[in-house]
Specification:
alpha/beta; Rossmann fold; 13 helices; 10 strands; 37% helix
């Protein structure tokens, strides 16, 4: 076995240059890496990547967004060049990192937009950030309920992409402490349900080449989701019932395979309906947009549409 070791302790093996300059800010426990595009006289926008994504997943979109916003794209703790914090990967910690980042780096009210797990963090900020911090929140195809081990509504993570997270945790190890990339791919043939084979290729790439975004990812994230520790202190339904700002919710590809009880996609229609009902119960407006043919990342697939939706959302916040 050839073991790989990636992360901040092995920067030469891990990182590559990008189009926008990077900088860091110390929030107390974690040093957060980020990039900025656009001028300070434009509305502030915080971009929060999904699981296994670093800030540079937004590079194409930032070229468009900088005409309308001052966009801050971050690496969450455990991803990109930001700190690794063993045993401390929880939604509450991710959210509080972003509260501190807004106070220290953005220093004014902001619109937040997060993809996938970043969308759940966007939801957390819309509920729990200090009053006046968040003007509006975009949830980009978040796995609300569906990324929990015991959800209040619909499919659990065990019925979605969760088994891939279990595989990553086992064969890569916390902080890449195992690093058996080839072994993980061999094991996928017997340890993953058959319906996850295509998702495996999309998520983990091939046995031959390790995707750059995964080199920058701490696989302890995967374990925290599979075991449920990431949400242990933060119930999704309770959080959504406390939202304090307008929400734009874009819901992308999803398909429920009834014979196997599996969900392909971030959230089912049932779960999306429950999300909207809970936000409405808080007294806030939610603009739900369904894009059933859109891949998980709109900002990566169609940055023009992503930018258009955020510009329209910001204009409505001024009314």
């Amino acid at each position: 076995m050839s073991a790989f070791r990636f992360g901040p302790d092995n920067p030469d093996e891990t990182y590559v240059p990008h189009a926008f300059p990077e900088q860091t800010i110390d929030t107390g426990e974690a040093v957060i890496n980020y990039a900025v595009a656009g001028s300070a006289d434009q509305p502030a926008l915080l971009l929060i990547p999904g699981q296994t994504e670093s800030w540079w997943g937004y590079e194409q979109a930032m070229d468009l967004l900088k005409q309308h916003f001052q966009a801050f794209a971050v690496d969450l703790r455990g991803q990109g060049r930001s700190s690794r914090t063993p045993g401390r990967y929880t939604l509450d910690n991710f959210g509080n990192d972003m509260v501190r980042f807004i106070a220290l780096a953005v220093r004014r009210p902001v619109i937040v937009s997060g993809l996938s797990s970043g969308g759940v963090i966007s939801a957390w900020l819309s509920a729990y950030a200090m009053p006046g911090t968040v003007r509006g929140a975009h949830y980009e195809d978040p796995p609300l309920f569906a990324s929990d081990v015991s959800p209040a509504c619909g499919h659990s993570i065990r019925q979605t992409i969760g088994p891939i997270f279990a595989l990553m945790s086992k064969y890569l190890g916390d902080q890449w402490s195992v690093g058996d990339w080839a072994g993980m791919h061999r094991a996928a043939k017997t340890e993953l349900p058959g319906w996850l084979s295509n998702a495996m290729a999309l998520t983990l790439g091939s046995e031959v080449e390790i995707p750059q975004r995964l080199k920058e990812y701490d696989p302890e994230w995967a374990r925290s989701f599979w075991q449920g520790s990431v949400y242990a202190s933060c119930d999704h339904a309770r959080m959504l019932a406390r939202v304090k700002c307008p929400v734009l919710y874009t819901h992308h590809f999803r398909n429920v395979e009834e014979t196997e009880g599996s969900l392909l996609g971030a959230a089912s229609d049932l779960q999306a309906k429950r999300v909207c009902a809970l936000i409405a119960s808080s007294g806030q407006k939610v603009d739900y947009r369904s894009f059933p043919n859109m891949p998980h990342s709109m900002h990566g697939t169609d940055p023009n549409l992503f930018t258009q939706l955020l510009v329209e959302f910001e204009e409505k916040l001024r009314d």
